[in-house]
Amino acid sequence: MSERHISVNITIQSELAETHRVQTDIENALQSNGYDEADVFAIRLAVEEALVNAMKHGNQLDPDKQVQVSYSVTEDRFDIRIVDEGIGFDPNEVPDPTEEMNVERPCGRGVFIIKNVMTSVNYLERGNIVVMSKLRGVETE
Amino acid sequence: MTTPTRRQRITVEDIGDIAVVQFVDKKILDEQNIQMIGDDLFRLVDELGRRKVLLNFSNVDFMSSAALGKLIRLHQRMTQVGGKLVLCGIIDSILTVFKLTKLDKMLKIVKDEQTGLNSF
């Protein structure tokens, strides 16, 4: 199995089907660097949630708005930056989905899941930029 | 009764009065797919009148939070009609997400299909 540093910068349309393409490429890059199933799953999940948030909540699924995705995979870590064209948000104002009053809500778990499966997550500028990292083999829960 | 005009996203096997559901897709994500799966599941309850539903996830290796939302709605609907929903065959990585979001406290989750059948 070859190990290689992979670095990608792409711009995608706000179409949910585009998330599959990005995820598949990321998964291939992780597997070529020998990441285990648990790490691949966590990264896939966080990327899925973040991309859907960017397209659906950030860009409002506006076909004229794009999402910029930059990611890198090394043998030690995965990093990704996702930028949407939306008005942004304050992640601290997202209700905790595990609180009793929120558990039965059918939505609102994406930000929480991302925070809990990745090693680090930061929202930048007005909240329309998310930067996430996953250190290989490091448990986050 | 509405007749689906697209491929079903679930398969249903009746074991007694229990509807055992398997998923066609290994990866349950993207809004359109989740919506179709939800439609198929709700049709089971609302149109076909099933009150005991066992969802077998043994074919599923990935699920996004949107799918969790659909399961919550299905659970709420089953509760409304006096039915029971049980989930089984969930792989560890997905189960971790249920536990992380505390949905394992709200939904009935068991290890395998036989245990699920016995739980009704």
Can you lay out the helices and strands and say which pair or pack?
The complex is a heterodimer of chains A (about 140) and B (about 120).
Chain A: E1 6-13, H1 18-32, H2 37-58, E2 66-73, E3 77-83, H3 110-117, E4 120-124, E5 129-135
Antiparallel strand pairs in A: 1-2, 2-3, 3-5, 4-5
Chain B: E1 10-15, E2 18-23, E3 27-28, H1 31-46, E4 52-56, E5 62-63, H2 65-80, E6 84-88, H3 92-100, H4 103-106, E7 108-109, H5 113-118
Parallel strand pairs in B: 2-4, 3-5, 4-6, 6-7
Antiparallel strand pairs in B: 1-2
Helix pairs in contact in B: 1-2
The succession of helices and strands of chain B, N to C, reads EEEHEEHEHHEH
Listing every helix as H and every strand as E from the N terminus to the C terminus, the arrangement of chain A reads EHHEEHEE
Number of strands of chain A: 5
- Residue fraction in strands of chain B: 15-25%
Structural class of chain B: alpha/beta
What can you tell me about this protein's structure?
The complex is a heterodimer of chains A (about 140) and B (about 120). Chain A contains 3 helices and 5 strands. Chain A has about 140 residues and is an alpha+beta fold. The two termini of chain A are about 30 Å apart. Chain B is an alpha/beta fold. Chain B has a single domain (about 10-120), classed as STAS domain (Transcription Regulator spoIIAA), CATH 3.30.750.24. Chain B is built from 5 helices and 7 strands; from the N terminus they run E-E-E-H-E-E-H-E-H-H-E-H. In chain B, strand 1 (about 10-15) and strand 2 form a beta hairpin. In chain B, helix 1 packs parallel to helix 2 (about 65-80). Classes of the chains: A alpha+beta (about 140), B alpha/beta (about 120). The interface of A and B includes residues 52, 97 and 117 of A.
